[in-house]
Every structure is written in C-alpha cells, then in structure tokens.
Amino acid sequence: MKQSRALVALSACGALLAGQWAFAADYAPDWKRGRIYYRMVCTACHKAETGQSISPMSKTIAEWGEYVDTDQHDASARANPSLKYYVSREYRDSVKNENKAAAKFIDVPADELLADLRAWVVHGAKDSDTPARCQ
Fold it and tell me: Under DSSP, is residue 131 helix (H, G, I), strand (E, B) or coil?
C-alpha cells in the first residue's frame, strides 16, 4: 500500500515536471524581438557607458553562446555582473521611463527575453550566415 502511494506521488511529480519542461521546450526564441531589445536597451547603455556599442559581429556563435550561458556580463565590477539582471523585470522596470523597449517588453518573462537576446546575437555573430552590426 505504501509502495503504491509513493508510486502515485512520484508519477504526479513527474507529470508536473514534464509539463513545465514541455513549456520551456516549446518556446521558440524570437531573434527579431531580441534584436529590438539589444539595439534599444543594451546598445543604449553601452554607448552611454563606453561611447561604443557592441556588435553581434564582434563574437563567434560559440563565443556568444558561452557568454550568455555562463551569465557573465561585466567582469570589471562597474556594472551588474549578471547578464540575466539586464533582462529581468526589475531592470526593465528601473529604466522603462527612459527606454521605450524596456517599457514595451515589461511583461515578457525574463527567460524568454534572454532566449530572444541569445537568438539575436547568435543570428548576427561573425561566423553566422547573417553577420550583423549595431546601428
């Protein structure tokens, strides 16, 4: 009896986890939305801080993948070291009055926006079929 209850509980947990995994696996990143966010939020900040934007063409597909996957934004400690912070609702909320894209995408889940951003930089990487510069 105890064994069957444990099996039912384990099956229920598995079904819940499978449902969550299916949602994440079903999301197809939108590189076009990532491009808008990158150009209007990331580029605006980088230009204000350094006077230069960072082009997707500045790294290879593998380099961009590693950069996003390791979540390392700024090793100098001048800014938040987490890339995920810059797609978080908290960050978008803090700049929404000055940045139309942050306001426009305020309700987009952060994990989706990060996937979109990753899709854009990979799409525009220097070794991709569509290398892109920031304008």
Answer: coil
- CA–CA distance, 27 with 15 (Å, rounded to integer): 19
- pLDDT by residue (tens digit) across 74-97? 766 677 889 999 999 999 999 999
* Contact partners, residue 3, CB within 8 Å, separation at least 6: none
Q: Among the residues of 27-99, which ranges form H helices? A: 31-37, 43-50, 61-70, 89-95
Alpha-carbon distance 31 to 45, whole Å?
A: 20
Asked whether 124 and 56 are in contact (CB, 8 A), the reply is: yes
For the chain, what are the domain ranges?
A: 29-123
The per-residue pLDDT for range 18-54, each reduced to its tens digit, is: 333 333 568 999 999 999 999 999 888 888 777 877 8
pTM of model > 0.70: yes
Cβ contacts of 92 within 8 Å, gap of 6 or more: 41, 102, 103, 105, 106
Contact 31, 119 (CB under 8 A): yes
| SS3 assignment, position 63 | helix
